Fold this sequence. Notes:
The chain is an alpha+beta fold. Helices cover 20% and strands 34% of the residues. The chain contains 9 helices and 21 strands. The strands form 5 sheets. It has a 6-stranded mixed sheet with strand order 12-13-14-11-5-15. α2 (49-58) packs across α7. The longest helix has 13 residues, at 129-141. The protein is globular and about 65 Å long.
Amino acid sequence: MMYGRCLLPAAIIEDCIMPKTPLYETLGAQGARFGEYAGVETAANFGDPSAELEALRHGAGVYDLGWRAKLLGSGEDRVRWFNGMVTNNIKDLSQDHGAYTFLLNAQGQIQADMYVYNRGDYVLVDTDLSQAVRVREIFEKYIIMDDVAIEDASDKLSAIGLQGPKSAEVLQHLGHDVSGLAPLQVVDTKLGEAGVSIVRTDSPQPTFEIWASTPNLPTVWSSLIAAGVKPVGSEAYEKMRILNGRPRYGLDIGERDLPQETAQDRALNFRKGCYVGQEIVERIRSRTTVHRFLRQFRLSGIVPQAPGAVQPEPIDIHTPGEDRPVGQFTSVASYSLPQFSGTLALGYLRNEASERKAVIEYAGGSEYAGGTATPLEAPPILPGG
């Protein structure tokens, strides 16, 4: 992993060292404008974020995933042990299949999110690089008499993303039929002479990840570019994430949030048995409910710029005449698309405001004016629409 100076405003931090993506030189040669994403210096855009978003929605776009970490779990007890650590069912995963899951504390609060894959001889954990150190520390704290070892392979193994309705066609052109891959299934193959693993993700958009050793990443990237795929930066990736209503840990999910508040049912399994924090999750399911849920909102009025190098602080939301906030916006992005023009946000809304269909307002400030927001039951346009 290479390191470089942060691109944060001086008012926030004067001098820091930020990891550079393993693809830094390759992206720079393609004309990337760099910025920070998830604590890593990577391509923010390649000159036209709108065209890059269009590629993700209607064509095929390739993007860096150097901000993701790979932890490997080995040892005879690995499957049983991982199943007792996270919220989803790891014990019954078939080989080369994965699951999205949360890591909780004893109070049921989310300490990290991740994908966990059964790779046969080992378990692979895919999470944000910014979470990796803490995740490993928590894991190792709970290894007592278990035959389990955790290794951080992030310096040796990284990934590239391929998204859009034509992405499977691109892989077919390169000699890989992925039409039969189930969500979160992995297949080991080659791109040219480079050994890779191709993963079909669980994104609403057709999306694949290509895992490769860091020395092979430039070759894989160049193969996709040569096949006509458009390079995409983190700005377009982030807009696509918010459009699809997918939360990001550290912004939309934090260490004090409870699993059911996030509306990520895909991360939970209620039949798997005990795990850290399971008692709280089960109590919420069987006896009560949470008081707020993560929602997607459509905003009217001027709001902070869509997420870039620095994510704005969460924005409090209110109902008219009440001082106490009824929720917060955690991610915001603006769009100018033929099918949708406006601003979307992800955030939390308290149940009482949702149930009485109250008008939701957000206040103005020194950098933006206020407006109103409407909770959405589904994204405003379907993936690829």
